[in-house]
Amino acid sequence: MTDYASLERQLSALLDTRDWLTNAAQTSAFLMHTLEDLNWVGFYLQRQPETLILGPFQGQPACNPIPFSRGVCGAAARTRETQRIDDVHAVPDHIACDAASRSELVVPVLVDGKVWGVLDIDSPRPARFSAEDQAGIERLCRIFIDASDL
After folding, report:
1. What's the rounded Cα separation, in Å, for the pair 41 and 126?
2. Is the pTM of this model over 0.70?
3. DSSP code for 98
4. Is the separation of the CB atoms in 21 and 56 below 8 Å?
5. Beta strands in the chain (DSSP E)
6. Which residue from 37, 35, 44, 36 is spatially nearest to 95, judged by alpha carbons?
């Protein structure tokens, strides 16, 4: 069981600048090294209409760009709702960047109601993310948003 309250305090202390790029890189590295059973953590940014482009991340090289109309990241951006997927191979339009990924959690990063990007987390373990993980990671994402000039 992950102590998300402790992780929230640690991430808050780590993000000591308002620079979004530094904070995104730090958040990705922090999550990759503090949460178990992950193989990719990073941000995709909306820099073109209805399209996500690769931002700071930890893990294997990733797919780029991702349209809002495809994949789990696209669904999170399109619906503005967190996507928690137990088996990515069961998602018909899943974009497979790393064949080792089996489950995924994608949190939309919203600023003033608009999609700034998404935080994407992949695991090689099926059903890696629980409702508790989702709530905890959503809170960690909120810390990133509040600490950054987005």
Report:
1. 16
2. yes
3. -
4. yes
5. 40-48, 51-59, 66-67, 83-85, 103-111, 114-123
6. 44
Exposure class string for 70-105: b at 16+ Cβ within 10 A, else e: bbbbbbbbbeeebbbbeebeebeebeebbeebbbbb
24-68 pLDDT per residue, tens:
999 999 999 999 999 999 999 999 999 999 999 999 999 999 999
Note the pLDDT tens digit of each residue in 110-129. Answer: 999 999 999 999 999 999 99
With tokens 């990073």, the residue in question is 42
Interatomic CA distance for residues 120 and 122, integer angstroms:
7
Q: How far apart are CA 119 and CA 107, in angstroms?
A: 5
> What domains can be seen in the chain, in order of their start residue?
4-147 (3.30.450.40)
Residues forming a β-bridge with 101: none
Q: Which residues pair with 46 in a beta bridge?
A: 52
Residue 99: its pLDDT value, please? 84
